[in-house]
Amino acid sequence: MGCGSSKISTGDVLALGAIQIMIGTFHVFLWYFILILYMGQIKGVFGTYEPITYKTGSALWGIFFILAGALTIRSVRHPSRTVFICTLAMNILCMILAIAAAILTVVELCTFKSVSYRNYGQAKLGREVSRILLVSYPLEFAIALTYSICICSSLDQRREDNPTQTEEVESTY
Fold it and tell me: In the predicted model, what is the mean pLDDT of residues 131-154?
C-alpha cells in the first residue's frame, strides 16, 4: 500500500514537513485571532458567544502540527529508527487531532444560539474563521497519513533487509 515498492524522495518529505509547519503556524495565528475576537465581547442580554472549539482551544492544537513537521524534517536530516518511530507517533497523533478538531468544528457550525446584537458581528466572524479552519483539517490529515504510510512501509522494508541476530544464527546451522 502506498510507498511499498518505491521510496519517497528526500525533497518530498521535506515539503511535507514544511507544509505541516505552515499549517500549524496558520492554526496558531488563527487561534490568537479568535482569542482576541472573543475576549472583546460585551456581556449582553443573550450573553456572549463561546463555541466549543474556542473552549477546547482546538485551533491551538496546531502546535502539534508544527512539532510533527519539525520531526518530519529531522527524520530526513538525521535518519534513525527512533526518530522515524517518534515521527510516526506524532503524525498519528496529528491525524487523531485533525479528526477531533473537524468534528468539533462541524458541531459548532451546526449549532448557533442567539447572541446579543452587540456580539453578533464577532460571532459571525468567528464562525467564518471556523469554516476556514475546517478546510485545513483534511489537508493536515492527508499529509500526516501520507507520511505515516510511507514511513511504515519504509520501516517494514528495513526490517526485511536487516535480519535479526536470531535469524542469522538459525541460517548458519
Answer: 89
Asked if residue 105 lies in contact with residue 97, where contact means CB atoms within 8 angstroms, the answer is no
Crossing angle of helices 62-77 and 120-161, rounded to 10°:
30
Tens digits of residue pLDDT in 34-69: 888 777 766 665 566 777 788 888 888 899 999 999
User: Could you tell me if 170 and 43 are in contact, meaning their C-beta atoms sit under 8 angstroms apart?
Assistant: no
Sign of CA dihedral 102, 97, 22, 35: positive
pLDDT at residue 136 greater than cutoff 60: yes
Residue 121 grid cell: 458581528
Residue 76 makes CB contacts below 8 A (sequence gap 6+) with 10, 13, 14, 17
Per-residue pLDDT reduced to its tens digit, 6-18: 567 788 889 999 9
The candidate with the shortest Cα–Cα distance to 54, out of 114, 133, 115, is 133
Please name the amino acid found at residue 8. I
Position 169 scores a pLDDT of 44
> How is residue 99 written as a grid cell?
479528526
Any alpha helices (H) in the chain, and if so which ranges? 10-39, 52-56, 62-77, 81-110, 120-161, 165-172
